Amino acid sequence: MRITVRVRPGSSRTAVGGRYGDAGDASAALVVAVTQRAVDGAATAAVMAAVARAFGARTRDVHLVTGERSRTKVLELDPVPPGAPERLADLLGLGTSVGRIVGRSTLDPDTERP
Questions:
Q1: Which of 83, 86, 76, 24 is nearest to 51 (CA)?
Q2: What angle do CA 67, 90, 22 make, to 5 degrees?
Q3: Which residues, 6 or more positions from 86, have their beta carbon under 8 angstroms from its beta carbon?
Q4: What gap in Å lies between CA 2 and CA 63, rounded to an integer?
């Protein structure tokens, strides 16, 4: 399973979730923020580890396909962990704006207003 990700190196914390690109665009990328800077492949290695954790896979099962020196990367999960497509849809559904990392709301969903 191939996943397009958009890297945010040098973030205050590591996080996986959100969408980079238009909401209706099938090529929208999963946002992955990592604390490591983009120096000597440190951010790329951190992205691969974060994606592995997010999908419940081993780090060695995440392979870089393209984007070694780019913020937009294509990763491959092989073998595909159970529930990975649903997990990807869930992670992409968290973001509502370009490049924004969004966590789950801490408000009660019954009292939260749009």
A1: 76
A2: 60
A3: none
A4: 9
The span from the first CA to the last CA of the chain, in angstroms, equals 34
Contacts of residue 105, Cβ cutoff 8 Å, sequence gap at least 6: 112
Residue with tokens 């370009």: 98
Q: How far is CA 47 from CA 32, 79, 109, in A?
A: 7, 18, 31
What stretches in the chain show pLDDT beneath 50?
A: 94-114
What does the alpha-carbon distance between residue 36 and residue 71 come to, in Å, rounded to a whole number?
13
Which pLDDT tens digit goes with each residue over 59-70?
999 999 999 999
CB count within 10 Å of CB 15 equals 19
- Please compute Rg for the chain using Cα positions: 14
Contact 11, 35 (CB under 8 A): yes
